[in-house]
Design goal:
Helices cover 44% and strands 13% of the residues. By secondary structure, the protein is α/β, with parallel strands linked by helices. Bound molecules: flavin mononucleotide.
């Protein structure tokens, strides 16, 4: 459904686009700048929902500093999904309650992570091989969420630009409403099973809907594929068919342009699109993917591409928010690591159309030891310096 905002349980998002969890990348500072990038150049937004990286419920319940840092959110980071991983229904339920008590708008269960550290403990995509356990977790978590519903005022504090579904008379829903639960799955564990038409995801999605989830996100790869090979749109389409509109299905995988978001929706029939890696260098992708959908269904202008000054301002803002939320050490580690992603979009052309890269900028930021040095490098770049001379290799760094 092109251009139609996504409804997840009681909340209607502002768009049908979601920022994916990407462990080590989608922290509070990044989620905030990606949300803000929707409004660049007069854009009308783009991120309907952003999700935390996967969180260990045990870590949250013990109060481990790492887990608490990963779960950090604030008033500008709404609506937000908090993603839990694990395999014990009781601990997942307690983790879900913790998430509700700490600002989650949606609770998500990770059933797609292929990383050994997670699957060896029966969590993540290992749940694709134990469907009864997956359903038990969802039933137990749903029950817990029903025990800690939010009042209309609490909803107002955490819905951001989403709206809470209204009663038939248009009034706010009476009483309290639980936070909805979603699951993020893959097509199945084994690629051979998938190729033989034995993917578990259509049946799993149906049983998750029976057990109480409000939406299912499907990454169109098997666990064995990890992140390689191309995303199988037909596998996502089968999940859409299987749930037959009972809950919305969100398609995920390899969406790096607005056109690919449209293709994901048209080829699979999904109700929403989750975008991960594409946002790491182009945070304004959500703005453009939403504008393109609206243009297709109703006409209207596409937003102008961000200027170089806006892109540099984005890097500064990201650094500033990391300093605010996590302090200098964290901010410096992240900016040195992330500058190559942002730099991909800072390649320009000279007057003869030759690409002008920014390898010297990347090197200077990677060598920087203080935020002030990073800011000075960005000043110099904006003044025309720290660029690759025409003819030099631009991608080698
Ligand atoms: C480095 C990395 C970390 C990820 N961490 C998570 C995670 O914490 N939780 C999750 O559900 N998916 C995680 N994913 C998967 C993404 O959310 C997404 O499903 C996948 O990258 C495909 O979407 P994309 O092509 O838009 O990036 C991760 C992916 C990558 C590459």
């Amino acid at each position: 459904m092109l251009g139609v905002p996504l409804q997840i349980g009681p909340i209607r998002l502002s768009t049908n686009l979601l920022l994916a969890p990407i462990a080590g990348y989608c922290d509070l500072a990044f989620r905030r700048v990606v949300r803000e990038a929707g409004f660049l150049g007069g854009g009308s937004g783009g991120v309907g929902l952003a999700c935390t990286d996967l969180l260990s419920p045990q870590g949250l319940l013990r109060g481990s500093a790492t887990s608490l840092d990963l779960a950090r959110t604030d008033a500008a980071d709404k609506p937000v999904g908090m993603q839990l991983y694990g395999s014990d229904p009781e601990i997942m339920a307690q983790g879900a309650r913790w998430a509700v008590e700490h600002g989650a708008t949606v609770v998500d269960i990770n059933m797609g992570c292929p990383v050994d550290k997670v699957t060896k403990k029966d969590g993540g995509s290992k749940l694709l091989t134990d469907l009864p356990r997956a359903a038990r977790i969802v039933e137990r978590v749903t029950r817990e969420l029903e025990r800690c519903p939010l009042s209309p005022d609490e909803w107002d504090d955490r819905r951001g630009d989403a709206s809470l579904a209204r009663g038939a008379d248009g009034a706010r829903p009476p009483g309290s409403t639980p936070v909805p639960l979603t699951c993020k799955i893959r097509l199945c564990w084994s690629t051979a099973d998938y190729d033989a038409g034995l993917a578990c995801s259509p049946g799993l999605a149906r049983s998750l809907a029976d057990a109480g989830v409000a939406a299912v996100t499907v990454h169109g790869r098997t666990t064995e594929m990890k992140f390689s090979g191309t995303v199988r749109h037909e596998g996502i389409a089968r999940v859409v068919e299987a749930v037959a509109g009972r809950v919305p299905v969100i398609g995920n995988g390899d969406v790096t342009t607005p056109e690919l978001a449209v293709e994901m929706i048209q080829r699979t029939g999904c109700a929403g699109v989750m975008i991960g890696r594409g946002a790491l260098s182009r945070p304004w992708l959500f703005r453009d993917a939403w504008a393109l959908q609206r243009q297709i269904i109703g006409g209207g202008e596409m937003p102008t591409p961000p200027t170089e000054a806006e892109k540099v301002a984005f890097v500064r803002r990201y650094l500033g928010l990391m300093l605010e939320h996590r302090g200098e050490h964290y901010a410096m580690v992240q900016i040195r690591r992330r500058i190559s992603w942002f730099a991909k979009e800072l390649v320009t052309r000279d007057e003869r159309g030759r690409p002008v890269g920014c390898r010297p900028l990347k090197e200077t930021v990677r060598d920087a030891s203080t935020p002030a040095e990073v800011m000075r490098a960005l000043d110099e770049f904006e003044a025309g310096g720290l660029r690759t001379r025409p003819g030099e290799a631009i991608e080698a760094a």
